[in-house]
Amino acid sequence: MSKKHIEECIRDSLETYFKDLRGVEPNAMYDMILKVVEKPLLDVVMKHADGNQSRAAEWLGINRNTLRRKLLDHKLTK
Q: For the chain, which end, N or C, has fewer CB atoms within 10 Å of the first or last residue's CB respectively?
């Protein structure tokens, strides 16, 4: 799957979101989108990194401590 395909999926989801609002103005979309994208991203990356936080952090391009905090925030730690 290419970056362009992921971008198209997100774009389609956002268009559907606005359609579902039926004219109601959205609120705090930026934070909402980051939260709903970040959790599955972290979950899938951790799965493919076999739970190795150092490897997952490297793949994500973030510090391991940042990853650890985000995993705790999303309740993705065991």
A: C
Whole-structure pTM value: 0.81
69 lies in some domain: yes
HSE-CB of 18 using CA atoms within 13 angstroms: 5
- Write 71-77 long-range contacts (CB < 8 A, 24+): 71/42, 71/46, 74/38, 74/39, 74/42, 74/43, 76/39, 76/42, 76/43, 76/46
Task: Give φ, ψ of 67 to 5 degrees.
Answer: -60, -45
In order of 29, 36, 41, the CA distances from 63 in angstroms are 26, 21, 15
Residue 78 placed within a domain: no
Q: How far apart are CA 35 and CA 22, in angstroms?
A: 23
Number of domains making up the chain: 1
